[in-house]
Design brief:
By secondary structure, the protein is an alpha+beta fold. 43% of the residues lie in helices and 11% in strands.
């Protein structure tokens, strides 16, 4: 708490942390009655410690890509980690039980959001199906099934069989799919052991073929090729039809630049916040730069989109202690325009580094004159400065004078308001403005002169910063 105090802090932590949340790793002892009428402990720690000698954090790291099987708290979670079936939902600000980020990212399928701290939320996948661990927690599948899933995950195997084979009418049936969703059913003639093993081999083989097909027609790869201009415009619509991709949904490109390194990859951090791969596409364009292509509602304004970006930055900071900057492109309703929105997000970050150094969220639509200056050749900018400030008059202005000018602009050229903000007498400010006029030939109390001076200052900052051109 002391490091959050501006006066007492020795680390400047208060500049980067918006809030502190205290988490208590309490293991809830929950018991349910299973199908056999026996009471079972739903704590997954017992399975790992007894069968594998691992704690839940080690197990979670070993499970790799088994999230479809086990589900995930994702951005709902408050970051406790491990394989707990019970977790605290990410709270909001000012005592709100649920964070705005959770409300934005999850659809309420049935019931209502928590109104009391004791309320429980059950998370379903994108197909509105319940994960196997949730079924286990509810006592609807035996521990042996969960153990088999864990064994496959620990060994890195792809588990495609969700239940045992079923025999009926002289045939053996086995479903193919992940989680509790059956996508296909394979059947083999016969009800003996040979038929059971054959159906198992076929189901795994077909599941792997399906996995390869999904990789070939992966939507995220398709989006990445679009924003990086690696696909011809004429091929975009053809490919979108192959993928059954809704090309006319309103989307926005967020470019998230990570300024700190962590044990968790930036891609995994963002993917954890946006697990729905059918509506949000998380793409890694470099080690520290992550692109998020997100659907937004029709008619969403800049403030609403910036609020989404702020929630992302706050969550990354509070959950992973990651400091980020986010550039926002304009919203587009045509898939081929995503490349333009991505370039705008890049420009927003570069221009923001020059003209809005204190902001970590910059929208392309808010760049104003900075966007225009960014497009100008440096030779033209240098000529402009030479014409406005003859004999190097700009360099002759000291720090105090430049701060006075900045405050004068921020208060809309109002002498009385500016003097009050600077804690100086009105006559003192008038004297400083007169001094500036003699040095530069520009009277900042006149609107046209003020505009010229303001643009010239921005051009000077632009030339010093030398931002990357896109």
């Amino acid at each position: 708490d002391e490091q959050m105090d501006r006066e007492k802090s020795t680390t400047d932590a208060y500049k980067y942390i918006s809030s502190i949340e205290y988490l208590y790793p309490v293991n809830l002892n929950t018991y349910v009655k299973n199908e056999d009428g026996k009471y079972i402990d739903t704590n997954l720690n017992d399975i790992f410690t007894s069968d594998y000698g691992l704690d839940t954090s080690e197990a979670a790291g070993s499970m790799g890509g088994m999230s479809d099987k086990f589900g995930s708290m994702s951005s709902m979670s408050s970051g406790m980690g491990g394989m707990s079936l019970w977790d605290q939902i990410l709270p909001g600000k000012d005592g709100a039980l649920v964070s705005d980020l959770v409300l934005d990212q999850y659809d309420l399928v049935w019931g209502k959001w928590p109104e009391e701290a004791t309320d429980i939320v059950l998370i379903v996948d994108r197909h509105n199906k319940i994960s196997d661990t949730a079924f286990y927690a509810l006592g609807m599948i035996p521990e042996s099934d969960v153990t088999e899933i864990f064994k496959a995950g620990m060994s890195g195997d792809e588990l495609a069989i969700t239940t045992d084979a079923v025999t009926s009418g002289g045939y053996t049936y086995r479903p193919i799919g992940t989680g509790s969703k059956w996508e296909y059913i394979v059947f083999v003639e016969g009800e003996d052991k040979v038929a059971e093993k054959s159906s198992g081999v076929l189901s795994v083989t077909l599941a792997n073929i399906e996995h390869l097909y999904d990789e070939k027609y992966d939507k995220s790869s398709f989006i990445k090729n679009i924003i990086l201009d690696n696909i011809l415009p004429s091929d975009i619509y053809v490919k979108s039809k192959e993928l059954h991709f809704n090309s006319e949904e309103v989307r926005v490109v967020f470019l998230i630049k990570f300024h700190s390194r962590s044990d968790v990859l930036p891609f995994d951090m963002v993917q954890n916040i946006f697990p729905d791969k059918n509506r949000e596409y998380v793409i890694s364009v470099s080690e520290q730069d992550i692109v998020l292509v997100k659907e937004v509602r029709q008619g969403a304004d800049v403030k609403e989109i910036e609020k989404i970006a702020k929630n992302i930055a706050d969550t990354l900071n509070s959950e992973f202690f990651a400091k980020v900057s986010i550039g926002i492109g304009t919203s587009v309703d045509n898939i081929k325009d995503l490349a333009r929105s991505y370039k705008e997000a890049q420009v927003a970050l570069e221009v923001g580094k020059v003209f809005d150094t204190e902001k970590n969220i910059v929208s392309y639509e808010d760049l104003g004159i900075g966007r225009l200056i960014y497009q100008l050749p440096t030779t033209l900018c240098e000529m402009f400065l030479q014409e406005v400030f003859k004999n190097g008059s700009l360099d002759s202005l000291d720090r105090e004078t430049l701060m006075t000018i900045q405050c004068f602009f921020e208060n809309n050229l109002n002498v009385s308001e500016t003097s009050r903000k600077l804690f100086v007498h009105r006559n003192t400010l008038v004297y400083r403005l007169e001094k500036i006029r003699k040095l530069t030939g520009l009277d900042l109390r006149e609107f046209d002169h003020a505009i010229t001076f303001k643009v010239a200052l921005m051009v000077k900052r632009y030339l010093v910063a030398k931002p990357v051109k896109f």
